[in-house]
């Protein structure tokens, strides 16, 4: 197997577009998170870049009561905390919650520490339940894309990589939408929904001016998801307009 590759600051220096990214997904210990951010800040200041959005995902080995204090102590440095439900519960020596009530109870324990700015929050990834977005002002559930086994396009094959796919898409859309959690959670859900449909990465192909992901255009995926979940109160036009009107 190909050995794991840990991306570090020297790697970002080789590729200026990576150094100037508007968001970063960090999966690491709290100490390493702080180290990366401290080293990154002066390099970005030299380029005149704004502070990036940071989504932090603690590594599983740190998700236990013994390391809880270490982890919450750095939450004022990150914009979004995004563990999965099992990891979040493990901080309190609990089993993975399988219902929304307990997901909300566990996730809300971290809210008081999310003080970096007014846009800070928690996005808890809860498997088949979808994802839970928690901020100081709101609480909102976003159903998983493949939440109905009776749907004609229901296809759950392999969850490998779904978490990373979710967070990467979330971070990009969150920034494009002007720190918009709704936008981030919708696109994170679409990305993980594509990833779970097959072994390996999703298939992408050009079809005229469109890109087809596993044979479906992004616009169609978005339409399908939003029509299935009208309670979200989000329209396709609203999402497109939000992205077009935002200037970073």
TrEMBL record:
Database matches in Pfam families: PfkB
Domain Carbohydrate kinase PfkB: start-end pairs: 23-201
Name of the featured protein = Unnamed protein product
- Origin organism is Ambrosiozyma monospora
InterPro entries (alphabetical):
PfkB_dom (IPR011611), Ribokinase-like (IPR029056)
Recorded hits in Gene3D superfamilies, A to Z, give: 3.40.1190.20
Q: Which PANTHER family match?
A: PROTEIN MAK32
Lineage, opening ranks: Eukaryota, Fungi, Dikarya, Ascomycota, Saccharomycotina
- Superkingdom of this protein's organism: Eukaryota
């Amino acid at each position: 197997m190909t050995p794991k590759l840990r991306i570090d600051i020297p790697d970002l220096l080789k590729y200026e577009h990576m150094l100037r990214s508007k968001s970063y997904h960090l999966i690491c210990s709290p100490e390493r998170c702080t180290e990366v951010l401290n080293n990154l800040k002066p390099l970005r200041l030299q380029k005149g870049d704004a502070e990036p959005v940071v989504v932090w995902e603690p590594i599983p080995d740190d998700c236990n009561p013994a390391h809880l204090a270490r982890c919450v102590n750095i939450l004022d440095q990150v914009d979004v905390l995004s563990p999965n439900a099992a990891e979040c519960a493990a901080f309190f020596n609990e089993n993975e919650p399988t219902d929304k009530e307990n997901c909300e109870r566990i996730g809300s324990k971290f809210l008081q520490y999310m003080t970096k700015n007014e846009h800070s929050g928690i996005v808890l990834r809860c498997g088949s339940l979808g994802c839970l977005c928690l901020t100081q002002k709101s609480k909102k559930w976003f159903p998983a894309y493949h939440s109905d086994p009776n749907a004609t396009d229901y296809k759950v094959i392999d969850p490998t990589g779904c978490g990373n796919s979710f967070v990467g898409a979330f971070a990009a859309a969150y920034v494009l939408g002007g720190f918009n959690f709704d936008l981030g959670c919708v696109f994170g859900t679409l990305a993980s929904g594509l990833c779970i449909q097959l072994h390996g990465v999703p298939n992408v192909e050009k079809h005229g001016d469109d890109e087809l992901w596993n044979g479906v255009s992004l616009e169609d995926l978005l339409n399908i998801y939003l029509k299935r979940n009208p309670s979200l109160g989000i329209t396709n036009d609203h999402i497109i307009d939000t992205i077009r009107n935002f200037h970073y």
